[in-house]
């Protein structure tokens, strides 16, 4: 019974993993457009605002879909490094952080029903 339940819960894991790159691209596009555009033409500013709002709305909808299917973001800033959920890209000495604490998140990770689909790419404080 447990194996059947797990098979049902994780059947969409590959699909979810594929959508993560889409989510990253949408976030990067939204972040590249300033919320308040300073342009000479009012229409250009309105277009940028519209693009920004549309990208944010799309990302919010994608997050809702992820949540509905049990896909949860892992952004472990200031948490203890967990090799089951995080992938350390580098270590560095940082004042005010205990060794083994995540000090930078380069890419958010994701879990599907408590199983790691993609580890968070992080920088970790060293002692």
CATH class: Mainly Beta
CATH superfamily, called what? Answer: Head domain of nucleotide exchange factor GrpE
Q: Major beta sheet, specifics?
A: 3 strands, antiparallel
Sheet with most strands: strand arrangement: 1-4-5
Give the helices and strands as they follow along the chain: HHHEEEEEE
What structural category characterises the helix and strand content? Answer: alpha+beta
| CATH fold-type name | Nucleotide Exchange Factor Grpe, Chain A, domain 2
Number of strands: 6
Strand share of the residues?
A: 15-25%
Helix count from the secondary structure assignment? 3
CATH architecture, by name, is Roll
What coarse outline follows from CA principal-axis ratios? flat
Describe the fold and architecture.
The protein has 127 residues and is an alpha+beta fold. The protein has a single domain (1-125), classed as Nucleotide Exchange Factor Grpe, Chain A, domain 2 (Roll). Helix content is 44%, strand content 24%. It has helices at residues 2-10, 13-32, 42-68; strands at 71-74, 86-92, 102-107, 109-112, 115-118, 120-125. The strands form two sheets. The protein has a three-stranded antiparallel beta sheet. Helix 2 runs antiparallel to helix 3. The longest helix has 27 residues, at 42-68. The chain is flat. The chain starts with a helix and ends with a strand.
């Amino acid at each position: 019974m447990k194996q059947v339940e797990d098979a049902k819960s994780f059947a969409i894991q590959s699909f979810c993993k594929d959508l993560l790159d889409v989510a990253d691209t949408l976030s990067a596009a939204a972040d590249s457009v300033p919320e308040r555009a300073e342009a000479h033409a009012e229409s250009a500013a309105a277009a940028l605002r519209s693009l920004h709002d549309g990208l944010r709305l799309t990302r919010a909808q994608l997050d809702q879909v992820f949540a509905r299917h049990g896909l949860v973001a892992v952004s472990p800033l200031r948490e203890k490094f967990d090799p089951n959920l995080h992938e350390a890209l580098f270590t560095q000495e940082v004042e005010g952080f205990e060794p083994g604490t995540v000090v930078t998140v380069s890419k958010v990770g994701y879990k599907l029903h408590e199983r790691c689909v993609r580890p968070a790419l992080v920088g970790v404080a060293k002692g």
